[in-house]
Amino acid sequence: MRTTVQSDPVRCTGCGACVSICPQHAVSMMPDAEGFLYPKVDGEKCIGCNLCEIRCPSGRTEQRSEPKMLGGSVQDEQLRMQSSSGGLFTSLAVQMIRRGGVVFGTVMNESLTAEVVGVFSEEALSGIRGSKYVQSQSADAIANAADLVEKGIPVLFSGTPCQVAGLYARLKGGHPSNLITVDFVCHGTPSPGVFAAYISELERIHGSKAVSFAFRDKRLGWKNFSTVGQFEDGSMETVTQLTDPYMRGFLSNLYLRPSCHECHLRFDTLPADLTIADLWGADKLYPERDDDTGLSLLLIHSEAGKAYFESCGNLDMFPIDSAEPFKRVNPSLFGPSVPHKKRERFFALYRKHGFSFDDINRLLAPPGRLQKTAEWIAHLPGAVKRRLLHSS
Ligand SMILES: Cc1cc2nc3c(=O)[nH]c(=O)nc-3n(C[C@H](O)[C@H](O)[C@H](O)COP(=O)(O)OP(=O)(O)OC[C@H]3O[C@@H](n4cnc5c(N)ncnc54)[C@H](O)[C@@H]3O)c2cc1C
Ligand code: SF4
Ligand code: SF4
To answer: Which of 20, 159, 327, 329 could bridge across to 143 with cysteines, CB 3.0–4.6 Å?
Structure first.
């Protein structure tokens, strides 16, 4: 009798679509030893129809025509600061709410677990705004979004490319006219178990429970963003991406999901109507537009996506002719991340004693001198920074 959907874990992205595809409710998501969720099949309930495996989207990529590309941001400066890049996601989401629809995106819930939820109001968009660099749970959201779409309710579903592929699989393919999908250029998603262990370690060090965690605070700059942890005792900790041990492990590919290293959902195979990303390289490519508060890259893959985007307002956008420069500055647009050579060693240590800052320091090379200088500059007040830059 079947116990898993995909016998090779590398083939499973963890989207959770199979949970609601199974007509017997025999599939549920369970964590593995690395802290990632995988579907487990209850042999007592399984009738052997194999629908879970037949409709699993893993490994099925559709070649699409080259997307149209734009760069830009929202006009609202406050909103731009609250967003990871140029804030395009919120503009797309607001439009769906004003049409009376539902927007699905990732929140950090009260127990600091990332999950995809549906929201119905503009106020509630703040929870799903911003990148959470940990894999979010999406099985329930895919089921709920598919139910709403099937009832004819307008839905915007935002998630990783593999979560969007999961939603289409649950809907048996096709592109319903009341559904708009938004994915992003994806570096890969870290283990939820590792993130939970990191939060426990932060709490032990602070002697206080963490009440919130932001992955991309831009107060020190868009390029040199920081994490911000807030604790029950009122204290707060801001650490730049270059020194935060969790972000260092994420950006070094120490604990991404195995499927992320084989993922072929890229430039012209991304499944959504629209793809959003950071416009990395803007300082060299579009210096006149880059004030370090964030710029987005937008890829338009479908006619429906184009029409939807054109109906959104309050944006400053400009055309981008070639994706060539992004090969170097945003490699995730074209290929999967390569696992760190010490990935196995990290997980051996993690299984023994959870997340340890010392392990990260031992396993990863220290941030380089150039990076340290960049970080030091980012800490300076704006006026001093401007004087330094003008005198160089
Ligand atoms: C794990 C991860 C890896 C990424 N890798 C890259 C990369 O390599 N290159 C690049 O250019 N951009 C990458 N991005 C995208 C980038 O961080 C921004 O999310 C994107 O530029 C959109 O920014 P925004 O200002 O338009 O909107 P924001 O308001 O920042 O919107 C973010 C959107 O992403 C969704 N989201 C946030 N966290 C998750 C999550 N864990 N799982 C699923 N959906 C989530 C939110 O629900 C929201 O819809 C990544 C994002 C994530 C979460
Ligand atoms: S549907 Fe998603 S969670 Fe289920 S086996 Fe396929 S990739 Fe994994
Ligand atoms: S890299 Fe691919 S498999 Fe991994 S989370 Fe992103 S879209 Fe999914």
So the answer is: 20
